[in-house]
Structure formats: C-alpha cells, structure tokens
Amino acid sequence: MYSCYLRKGIVYIPTWGKIDKGHYRGVEPIAVVPVSDTDGLWRAFRETIARGNPVVPRLPRAQIPPPAILKYAGVKTWGAFSRGTLSWNINELINDGFQIVGKRKSPSGGFIDDPQQTVTMPPGSNVEDVIERMISILQETAREPRP
Hints:
Elements: E1 2-7, E2 10-20, E3 23-34, H1 38-51, H2 69-73, H3 78-82, E4 86-92, E5 98-105, E6 111-120, H4 127-143
Antiparallel strand pairs: 1-2, 1-4, 2-3, 4-5, 5-6
C-alpha cells in the first residue's frame, strides 16, 4: 500500500509500515516534493515503492505517536493537515495489477475511498505506468481551480 497527499502545491508521500494483515501506520521517511517537480515526484515514488511496507510493531494506543507527516507539513493536528488536502492510494492488486484510489473526506475527519476517482490500470501495467499516471493526476488536480 502506498499513498500520497496534495496540500498547498506540495505532495507528501509517506512510507506505510505494516503492522499486521490489513493494518498500516505512516512512518518515516516521508518524501516532500512540490507538485510541479516531475523528476522529484518520480524519484520519490520510486524510492517509496522500492522501500515497500516495512514491518513495524503494534503499539499500545497510548504509545502511538502523532502522524509523522504533521511535522513535514508544519501543522500540529491531523485536522489542520487534512483541511484543503487531497489524498490517493496506490494499491497493488492480487492479480498483479494496480489501482489508484482517490479519496474524499469522511465525516469523521479522515479520508475514505471515492469510487468515482478510482483508476484501475490496464492489464500488463507496471510500476512506472502507475507512477506516470499518479503524477499526471496530481499535476492536473493542482491546476484545477479549487473553491
């Protein structure tokens, strides 16, 4: 599982540590790249995907630190980070395919899958194809006027 966030013209690409089956926690390193820097985005996505999802320990609730991404964005809370932020996941499918899943805001303050923003890559697509499409989505989205 991989994800990225677009906030104020900056793309944040965290590493997702795998806790156990289906559970992940955002960990460092976190890439921070201007959306206009195509080469930087390519490097950041390649490095993050090559890193994979390292195994991280399950922590008791009281020991779970605040999301590491907050310090990179210069904010103190998840609510402050998520305001005006757009999010996508890149999922590697069991049948060797990929999906880019756009997210929308959840009433609880997080992000949930938005089926209208889901892109299933064609059969035979590889990581480079997914990265190219993801960068295209980010840059197109950044150019669109926002309310």
